[in-house]
Structures are given as C-alpha cells and as structure tokens.
Model the fold of this input.
Amino acid sequence: MPQAPPPQLATIQIAVINESTVLTATDVTPVIPALQQQVTNDFRPAWGVDAELALVPQGQQPAAGSWWLVILDNSDQAGALGYHDLTSEGLPMGKVFAASDLTAGTSWTVTASHELLEMLADPDINLSAFIQNANTTGTLYAYEVCDACEDDSFGYQINNILVSDFVYPAWFETFWTQGATQFDQMKQIQNPLQLLKGGYIGTFNVTAGSGWQQQTAEKTPTSMKQRGHVGSRRERRATPRTQWINSLPQRKIHGNAQEYRKHVQTITRRREAA
Done:
C-alpha cells in the first residue's frame, strides 16, 4: 500500500524593509540570502518552521499577508515613522535597530538573525515553558530562542555574514542531562536553561506574581540590549495584548520616512557647519 507523502511545512512570507539611514540597499541585500539559508537549512530542521524572505525595494509596498522584518536606526525612528507592535494588517513584525547596534559595537546582522528566528518561533510573543519547582511554585520561561546565546561571540558565519546562534526545543526541557542532546545550533550550551556569557531570558515567577523579569548569566544586566528597547519583543511580552498597536499603512510610513531623512540631513549639515 503506497504511503502518504509527508505533510508540507507552511512557508511564511517575510518582507524585509530597510528604513535605516545608516544602512543602504547595498549593505542589506547580501544579508538576505544568508538569513534565508539559516532559516531553511538550520532553523527549519530544529523547529519545523520555514519562511521565504524578500527585500522590499525602497518606496514599494510589502506583499499582502507578509510578516515584516524592519531595519531601523533606533526605537525613536520606529515611533516617528509609525512602526508599532504589529504590521498594518495586524500580523507579526520584528524590528532591527541598526544604529543602536553600531553605537554599541555589536553586529546588526546578528540582531536581524535574532529577531527573525524569534519571530518565527513565537510570532505572537505568548509562548513559554513552565518549570514547576514544587506543588505550589514554578517559573515561566519565555520562548525566546536566541536570548540565551545572543552575544556576537557565539554567532556563526554564513557566506561571510555573521548570524545568531539559537537554542533547540530541548533547551526548555529540564529532563535532559548534561551533554545528552543538542541544546543549540553551535553546540555551545551543555544543559537545559543554561545562559551563555551575555545571555539572558525572560522569566515570570507565577507564585510571586512579579511580572516578567530578565534573568542574566551575570545575574545583573550588562547592557541596555538586555533590558530591551521600546517596541522590542521584551517590552511587548510585558504589555497586555489588547494594548498592542498596528503600524501605519506602508504608504503613510514611506511619507514619514522621507520627512525623517530630510530631518536627519538637516541636523547633519548643521553639525558639519558648526
């Protein structure tokens, strides 16, 4: 009797939109194939999620029904342009703050990889693993797949593009013993829930009811990135879903972006003339 073909994975369409003033299309274009390879070759086998990425040319509209990965200067620019919590259709959206990365001396391509994979793993920012400590105590661990190993030093190269390491589902499964299975893509993590240097994870103590807190490898945050930017996934996870705001239509955002670039150019000219 012939066997039924295996089910096909749903392929999510990701529109990559570059609104940054510090990165050109020449900077962004070669990164897209590297991110595509990471999703299809590395992430899909581990997590069962696939996506097709397409860079949206300047001034054009992203395809209807697509999720957005938006490259911006910083969270201030996101607000000025009208990029909020979701796409204008109410679909998932990730944000990459390239100027903030450059200022901090970190790689924007790692951040792009990080945000992309976390959006694919938990698009509604509502998944978590419950670790029960006793009959009446326990902790929720946010389903963020890059935070534990997010430091640039743990990333890897695809076509000379640095991308983020990411954890496997086993990272959230506490029954595994040390080294018993693979916990992350680069095999740098040896135990469930282990945080590498510079890593962190959102936790929620359900007994204390203290809300989402950041647990870090160093016990205290070592960078602003660990605290999360306004509009980041960490801020959205702590914000009631009913308070999330859709982004403006892309045509309106494009007009805002033109005004924003003029404003940046004016400031730059004034500084040069001073």
